[in-house]
Write a structure and sequence with these properties.
With 108 residues, this protein is α+β, with helices and mostly antiparallel strands. It is built from four helices and five strands; from the N terminus they run ββααβααββ.
């Protein structure tokens, strides 16, 4: 999806892949015809590649998140017998903070 907001374009990963194909096609056509491709195309390609890489990373994190069950640091302390302070320290190392509360992953 590509949408316009004022003078800015908002492009999702599918739109970035489409624009990437257009850039590669334009660059290849320029090379075939002995014309140098504008430097702006390679700069735009770098931005498009970054969007696609970010989407892959996000998908990997989503998949990782879906495989895990999250419990509060308080519940972690109850299950492991450690103090809540230790549980929060563990959460800071390998968990997440959401709305002011620490959560730790437990794989299913």
């Amino acid at each position: 999806m590509i949408s316009r907001h004022g003078t800015a374009l908002i492009i999702d990963a599918d739109g970035a892949r489409f624009i990437g194909r257009l850039i590669r096609t334009a660059t290849a056509a320029a090379r075939r015809n002995g014309i140098p491709a504008p430097s702006e195309l390679s700069e735009l390609q770098a931005h498009v590649d970054a969007v696609i890489a970010a989407e892959r990373t996000l998908n990997r994190h989503r998949a990782e998140y879906d495989r895990e069950e999250w419990i509060t640091a308080q519940r972690y302390a109850e299950l492991t017998g450690c103090t809540e302070r230790t549980a929060r320290r563990h959460a800071a190392e390998r968990g997440r903070k959401l709305r002011g509360r620490w959560f730790l992953p437990i794989e299913r």
